[in-house]
Design goal:
9 helices, 71% helix, DNA-binding, homodimer, Tetracycline Repressor, domain 2, globular, mainly alpha
Amino acid sequence: MGHMTSEHRPALPATPPLTERQEARRRRILHASAQLAGRGGFDAVQMREVAELSNVALGTLYRYFPSKIHLLVATMQDQLQHMHTTLRKRPPTESDPGARVAQTLMRAFRAMQREPHLADAMVRALTFADRSVSPEVDTVSRLTTAIILDAMGLDSAATPEQLSAVRVIEHTWHSALITWLSGRASIAQVKIDIETVCRLIELTGPQRPE
Amino acid sequence: MGHMTSEHRPALPATPPLTERQEARRRRILHASAQLAGRGGFDAVQMREVAELSNVALGTLYRYFPSKIHLLVATMQDQLQHMHTTLRKRPPTESDPGARVAQTLMRAFRAMQREPHLADAMVRALTFADRSVSPEVDTVSRLTTAIILDAMGLDSAATPEQLSAVRVIEHTWHSALITWLSGRASIAQVKIDIETVCRLIELTGPQRPE
DNA sequence: ATCGGTTCTGTAACTTGTTCTAGATTAGCG
DNA sequence: CGCTAATCTAGAACAAGTTACAGAACCGAT
């Protein structure tokens, strides 16, 4: 009896609909994860502590998130959603697409500077994830791409070259974050790297001026 | 007791000279690490196995490499040295600096395709490393920079802009590798990303004012 | 309200990175 | 050579991620 509930299954193996209590549990878990991560970074997110803090048994935690990496990547999804809606409220002011992307990424970067431990936990999990987490990491990647494309302010679809540039920007964004988080690059350095890579956008097949 | 010779300096610099047997032990450890990594990637490098395979006690292994991450980053240093000398023997044939860098990185990439498990172990360790491994990761970064600068064929010193471009290329290189290793990007995709980012070099010519 | 299957809980066990300890071995030096 | 300090070995012990399992609680359908 497949009713017509809003159920699209393009990718994931049909997430069974969660009851209210289950949704609440999921929330509590993600909240506890972000809280612990914000306090002490990747290492401070200990599965036993997450379970206790969210009033859930350890086994249940693992039923919701099959590994610590899954949990932290899901936490990043959550935070990115917030970031995306926040950024949409105040679109970048620059006129150049490249400059707009750089401005947006620097805003995101400043948000991370406010919670460096949380950023550490999420980014480390993201880059450490192996194939078993690919779908979730891909979701994060798509979110990041959406944020960048938003910043570019494209009316029409992006060209393949532009998409390549966006992917390179994402690469630089993640890797620059890592070097900053591990203390091997300064904030100024990250800024320069972001601005440098955003110049790629100017190079690519620009939207034809009308 | 307190002799003038540097004894247990908590800091980085002066590695006390190793005896021959110690040098041999270090070699055996690195060899065992690469061997296990080549077989099954990051997870297959288990400290107890490394110790046994290199005929060294577990405590000794930890004296030489204070963590699994340190060990794998050192393994990467080792492999990169090889790669550097190998690449030097056959410099890139392209004429454009950007194309030369892309060609060189694609060669390195093909080498990794021959040992994907080893690449996995090394790259995952590199990006997962925290502050305690910063000096070692920095060494790897300097090696990579040297390879890229070599490929550019610079006679004189690079300009700051060029150095920024090189850093962005490094970011892209690492991150693209990760997406490939975790199965989220194809080999062709990585190639495109490398070629895309290498276009930055053309932008930053030292003898080009505009 | 009751039944049957699923989910959740509490807890123990297992895995692997890391630390610690006591004794054997080695290196450097007079 | 013989001494002393450093290093190495073997093994236990600890920490945190992960798995396993028995019983309680919950959900949906009858």
